[in-house]
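User: Could you check the structure of this?
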Amino acid sequence: MKIVILDGYTINPGDNPWTPVEALGDCTVYDRTPAELVLERAQDAEILLISKVKLTEAVIASLPNLRYISLLATGYNNVDVAAASKRGIPVSNVPAYSTESVVQTAFALLLELTTQVGLHDAAVKAGEWVRCPDHAFWKSSILELDGLTMGIVGYGTIGRALARVAAAFGMQIIAHAPRIPADPGPVAVRFVPLDELFSTADVVSLNCPQTPENTGFVNSRILSLMKPSAFFLNVARGGLVNEADLADALNRGVIAGAGLDVVAHEPMLADNPLLPAANCIFTPHIAWASLAARKRLMTIVAGNITAFLGGAAVNVVNSPSACR
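Assistant: Sure, the predicted structure tokens are below.
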């Protein structure tokens, strides 16, 4: 079975060998594949593994040997799953491999916004504490999370884990999800309409997949509902946000700040309006990328391929009835 990995570098930059996948077939690994080389490199693939390479309907239609696609990620908005279904090609993702790392990163962003460790570290190293007449000083006061309301958009595995940590900080939890789960888990949570969540929460965190229906839904209208003291977090997908509208809301003080691990175009473009925006901090899409998470990802991907080869594909995100 011919296995082709089109963009493997971020999963294995040298510390996470492809050995479990290589054991399953004739495997070719490309660190990165530009759009103009996708067809050439994938032409003979029967099993195609991708992280962020785009597989459009035209690309999928041009790969005659392709039988199976496995994402190297949880999100699958870069694959035309309907086109794959028409071809009877199952598309699998990798769920729940990076949950704890994503939650940790979300809170790292939130704690930087509310405590500003970086700002104070820089001040100390610039000599301000040495010159200070008092035993303590602050550039801005710490904002306590205890008693604040965390609003979680999307209440899947990551949303639930975020709620657990937020509750440990003493926060109240509200959430919005397309389907309210019968068992929301051990943390007390109140499910509310989306507009109510944005208008009520002190912190809004996006933890939902990106779909054609919700692309760009975080826009000027919904941001205008937020408290001027509220913070916005996105550790999901950058395309969920109208970036010009978010930058405008930050610059005009409509909201207090934002912490982002993702942007709509990655790597970030030099003219992204959020780069100079007021009180907007970034991590470069690293929330998923701890070594522990990447090792789990590798194990699950190998399991996805093994299940497909055994005739019962798992973690399939397109219509099973369409996949012959």
